[in-house]
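Chain A, query sequence.
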Amino acid sequence: MKPIDLKFAIEIPDLKYLGRGPSCTGLNGWSTRKEFIYRCANCDDTMNAAWKNDWTCSCQAMALDSAAARFGSYYGDENILVYKRLSKTSGFLQQFLKTLRLKSPRA
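Chain A, predicted structure.
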C-alpha cells in the first residue's frame, strides 16, 4: 500500500521519529518495549508498544489483537509511524540546541 500523506506535524515533544513500519524498531518485527510509541498515519492516534490489551485507533485502521498477538494497520504497516522516547537529558539537550540555533546570527 502507498504511504498516507500526513495531515499533522511529524514531531512529538520528547519523542524521536524513527520512520515508518516495524523495520524502524531495529528488531525483527514490532517491538513491545515501552520506549517505543506507534502512531496511526491516518488519524494521529498513538499507542505505547508495551500495551497488553486489545486496542484500536479512532479511525479503526491501527489495531492490536492481544489474543492473536497481532498488530498492524488496515493501510499497511508502513502507515504506522514509529517513535522512541528520549531520555529527559536528551530531550532537554535537543531543546537547548534548537534554542541556540534560533538565537544564533545568520550569515
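The chain has a mean pLDDT of 88. The first helix runs from residue 88 to 103.
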